[in-house]
Amino acid sequence: MADGTHALPNDHLPAEAKTMSGAEYVAGVLKEEGVKQIIGFPASELFDASAALDIPPLIARTQRVAVNIAEGYARATAGRELAVVTVQYGPGAESAFAGIAQAFNDRVPMLFLPTGYPRGSEAIAPNFESRRNFRHITKWCEAATQVDDLPKLMHAAISRVRNGSPAPVLLELPVDLLAERLDALPADHRRPRRSVPQAGDREVVDLAKSLLAAKNPVILAGQGVLSASATPELIELAELLNIPVMTTPNGKSAFPEDHPLALGTAGRARPATVDHFLAKADVVFALGSSLTRSYYILPIPEDKTILHVTLDDADLGKDYAIAQGVVADAASVLKQMIALIRRDHLPLGERQQPAAEIAAVRAAFMEKWMPLLTSDSTPISPYRVV
Q1: Phi and psi at residue 59, in whole multiples of 5°?
Q2: pLDDT, tens digit, 9 for 90 and up, residues 60-83
Q3: pTM above the 0.85 mark?
């Protein structure tokens, strides 16, 4: 160098210069994963570390709202982008509980990174330890206990967000651990890829033949169709086989409701088209749905033959006796079925064209409700408002 000194090789740099804090490492991994914002409230050691890497914090008004925002983001991106939410340990984690429970019930993939009490004090009453309390409303719930474990724990957590049945994944990060330094580089993080399970050939053949042989089949499309971005394939199969389609409440918009084969949403409140065609159906093809019985979901009558496709094997036979259950991604199954039917020219049995009947039932339903929808009553009819 110009002043006669010599630059030190990296091995002679002070340890502080070669390492980063736990918070900086976690933020660096999120950057490698393409995370666009970190959502949370009210404070987290991850906020400043993320902001330093141009990952802006999105601060909500409450912890539950922060979780709800992350849930909406995960839904809107169909899980293709990593939704990350963080909250402060103690009361912050407690206040996030209801939001995570709702996301778990609605099967939303997100990464929940609550901070934790300093190690050694987490089990002192009444301190709230996330790892113990969130275990039944997450599909993976762990806490980091050594800063050097962060690389494998972050990789494991993100792998579980991306794969299998969608649900929140929790990794608790003690605040003292986030301040410790580790010798690891986020650039060495390997981004977990999403694995899409497919049905076996025999399973696809059986599904296709059951639908082709049915006289009055209906498709019940669930949230799994949205998660798999499988709407185009669902439309193609419905049109190919002339099958009416209804959706679950969480699957609403998985099939366009202005389509001639659309029946609407099979919720507690529903159009007459749903009741009419479910009553006459002999086969119900439940696609991307958990088939969970609920006060808010129209039950499937006991006399129906049910074909069930879901990502979670725990759904099969849970609330309904099913004729065939397949554990697979909704888009993959639809593509396999369409390819099989077109390739082998499988014949469609005798079946009426349902579009005209759907239109007639819908018209009668709207005619019945129109006086309320256009009512000039005082006070104003809530139906007209809606």
Answers
A1: -95, 120
A2: 999 999 999 999 999 999 889 999
A3: yes
